Amino acid sequence: MRFLGVVSASAALVLGVAGNAMACSIRDFSAVAECDAAGKGVISVTDVDPSGVTAEVTVYLENNGADERLVGTQTIENATAAGVTVTFSEDWQPNAEYRIHVKAEGYVDEDIKPNLTTPAEACASSDEQPPAEEPEQPEQPSDEPSPETSAPAEDPAPSASGSTAPAAPGDDVETPQGANAPAPAGQSNLAETGAGSNTPVIVGIAAAFVVAGGGAVYFGMRRRGASSR
């Protein structure tokens, strides 16, 4: 009987030590500030508790030893020895300080020590990266004709001093009112004024006849008076 009591006590002690070793504790939790694939800042908390106790994780941004802002709260369920990770989206600044509190009912209710300090270099977001410069493409010759060669040549404007073609014989030519119209055939400008006609000759012959007639009458009257004496 004494032997059985010793064996039972030893087994209980071993089971107690093993149970304490497998129980959830704050040592099962770790946190890190990193950048995701898109270049955004995140805070990741990992639980490697093999017992799979449900734990609640809360993250705070610290400022001079006090909570400045609540980042968020997430729950880890069914944790394994391989580890289960929850991620908080946080655009953290370099050398910022965060407090991570873990609460597992009946096991843990404390902060991860020490507080998390972010890296000295912030994440480079892909949206902030300058676009790569594209190589300059050589100019391709355009198939479209240039305005200088495509525009048809314009006909020169008719000269104001240019002469018009003479009218053909027999065509009726309108003359402006008051202009000198061409004289009919057989007449000249002298005929229009009377200087080029036979009028002076006729007047001269008539005057000669008048003088001759007057002289004949005169001599006839003298001859008749002489004979009457």
Structural summary, described in words:
This protein is an alpha+beta fold. The chain has a domain at 23-117: Immunoglobulin-like, CATH 2.60.40.10. Helices cover 26% and strands 24% of the residues. The protein contains 4 helices and 8 strands. The chain has helices at residues 2-22, 147-150, 189-193, 199-227; strands spanning 29-35, 41-47, 55-63, 66-76, 84-89, 97-104, 108-111, 116-117. The strands form 2 sheets. Strands 3, 4, 6, 7 and 8 form a 5-stranded antiparallel sheet that branches. It has a 3-stranded antiparallel sheet with strand order 1-2-5, with no helix packed on it. A hairpin with a 5-residue loop joins strand 1 (29-35) and strand 2 (41-47). The longest helix is centred in the C-terminal third of the chain and has 29 residues, at 199-227. It is rod-shaped and about 205 Å long.
